[in-house]
Amino acid sequence: MKSQLHRKQIDAIIVAVRRKREQLNFSQEYMAAKMSIKQNAYSKIELGNNKLTVERLISICALLEMDLSELFEKTRPGVSRFSNLRLHF
């Protein structure tokens, strides 16, 4: 049960990342190049086939010019425990 809940939260984060990337008209190739990984590896992150590490999540947020708190608020509206957390890059 716990892992299913975590999987839903991770999936919501991945969807929010993909939406923001698409809003900015950034390709997966662009994101991968900026993160020094292959496009295939980035694609697997968005598909949920590769684990989304904290380091990669921070890199993605920096590229998309969004705070981690903003990302968490988008995935859990009104329930963010991170509302006071502000990371600037």
Provide a descriptive summary of the structure in words.
There is one protein chain. This protein is mostly helical. It has one domain (2-75): 434 Repressor (Amino-terminal Domain). The protein is built from five helices and no strands. The protein has helices spanning 2-23, 28-35, 39-47, 54-63, 68-75. Residues 77-89 have low confidence and may be disordered. GO terms for molecular function: DNA binding. Residues 17-71 form the HTH cro/C1-type domain. InterPro entries: Cro/C1-type_HTH, Lambda_DNA-bd_dom_sf.
Number of domains: 1
Structural class given helices, strands, pairing? mainly alpha
Can you give the helix content as a percent range? 55-70%
The CATH class, by name, is Mainly Alpha
Question: What's the CATH architecture?
Answer: Orthogonal Bundle
* C-alpha geometry: globular
Number of helices: 5
In quaternary terms, these chains amount to single chain
Which topology does CATH recognise? 434 Repressor (Amino-terminal Domain)
Q: Termini separation (Å)?
A: 35 Å
| Rounded mean pLDDT score | 83
Low-confidence segments, given as residue ranges, are: 77-89
Largest sheet: none
The radius of gyration over CA amounts to 13 Å
**How much strand content do the residues show?**
under 5%
What pattern of helices and strands is seen along the backbone? HHHHH
CATH H level: which superfamily?
A: lambda repressor-like DNA-binding domains
Per DSSP E runs of 2 or more residues, the count of β-strands stands at 0
GO molecular function, one term: DNA binding
Organism: Mucilaginibacter achroorhodeus
Protein name: Helix-turn-helix transcriptional regulator
